[in-house]
User: Fold this.
Amino acid sequence: MRAIWKGAVSFGLVNVPVRLFSATENHDVQFRQVHEKDGGRIRYQRVCSIDGEEVPYSDIAKGYETSDGRMVILSDEDMKSLPSRSSKEISIEKFVPSEQIDPLLFDKSYYLEPEKSSVKPYVLLRDALEKADRMALVTVAIRTRMTLAVLRVREGVIVLQTLLWADEVRKPDFDVLGEDTQATKKELAMASSLVDSLAGDYEPDEFEDDYSEAVESLVESKIEGGEVKAPTAAPEEETEVVDLLAALQRSVDAAKAAKRGGGPKDEAEPEDKKKPAKKASKAKKKAS
Assistant:
C-alpha cells in the first residue's frame, strides 16, 4: 500500500504523526466498450450541446445548474474564493458511544499508520479507544474540503472512516409500510424460529465472488481458443503520422523551390556563392 496523506492526530496536548492508507479496494470486473467488429475501443468526444463543436480541455469550465435549468459558470478565480482547508491535522472533537453512529453514515475507510517516532502515543490512543468502547469524532481535510470522520480500532490498527453529512442521508417514505399491516404472533414466532435455525457467525472467507471468477474463467477460455481481437492503431496515432508526412512533404517542396532560385538576392549573387547554397539545399533535402 502507498500512503495517500500525511498529517497528525491531535489528542489533547499530544500530536500523533500518522500516514493515511486506503483500507479498501474495488475488485469489480471492469469491461471496455468496444466495436464488436474489430475490437477497437469506443472513444467519446467533448462536444458542446449548443454549437456541436468539440471543446478542448482549456475551454472547459465548471458550471452549476439551477433548479430552473439555467447555468452559472464558475471560473478558476471563483473556485479559489470558496472555503478550503489545507490543514494536516486530524482534530478530535469528542468521544461518542459507538452505537450512536449509524453505519449508514460511513463513507470511506482508511488505515492510520504511526510514524516511527510516534508509536507510543499512537498505541495510547488506540488502547484508550478500545477501553472506552467509543469512537473519536474528528474533523479532517484530506484534500481541500473539511469533513467529519470517526476513529475506531480494527485488528489493533486505528481506522479513520469519513462520514456523510446528515442531509446526505435520505429519509425513507414508503406509503405501503403503514401501521395497518402488522405481523401476527404466530407469524412472528415462525419467523423467529427461522432466524434461530439460520443463526451463525460472520466468516468472510465463507463467501466468494462467483461472478468475478466466472468472468475470469470465461475470458481465459476465449484466449485459449484464439478468440482475441488485435485492434489496429488508434485514429489519433494515424493522424499524427499523416501530419508528420505532410510536414516532411512541405519541407521537400520548400527545398525544391529554393533550389529553383527564389528571390532577386539569389540572382545577383555570383556563381561561386550559389554553389554552397545548392549543396546546403541538397543536404537539407536529404535530411528531410
Observations:
- The helical segments are 76-80, 119-132, 185-197, 210-224, 235-259, 264-268, 271-287.
- The mean pLDDT is 80.
- The CA atoms of residues 193 and 199 lie 10 Å apart.
